[in-house]
Write a structure and sequence with these properties.
131 residues, alpha+beta, Immunoglobulin-like, 2 domains, 5-stranded mixed β-sheet, 22% helix
Amino acid sequence: MKIINICKDKFTKIARMLGCVALVLASIASFQSPASAATVSVDANSVTFDPEQVEVQPGDSIHFEIKNSPPHNVVFGSRGPSDLTEISHSEMVMNGGFDITIPEDTKPGTYQYWCSPHRGAGMIGEVVVKG
């Protein structure tokens, strides 16, 4: 009887250890690292944005590159599921570039932006924020 109790105790300890190991492995398997933010590029040419439309996720950045063209800026309107006017880059830039980061709390949808002095000439772009 004593041998049976010893075997029973050992079996119980092994079963508990295996249960703990299974829990640890399950938690490791379910761990997902957060997606890293991406950066997409848009060229501001003489009076166009190229590409005219980009797709991003909240937290992503858009790099606007201005090369050998008139000065440009990027202004977001208040229309859309979220108000992105706060991320506008209203300062005029002649050469170089600047980045705009889409806020993490931005709702999915299509947002229009433009270059203030060239809007009438059709220098308008769109950012599609995916959810």
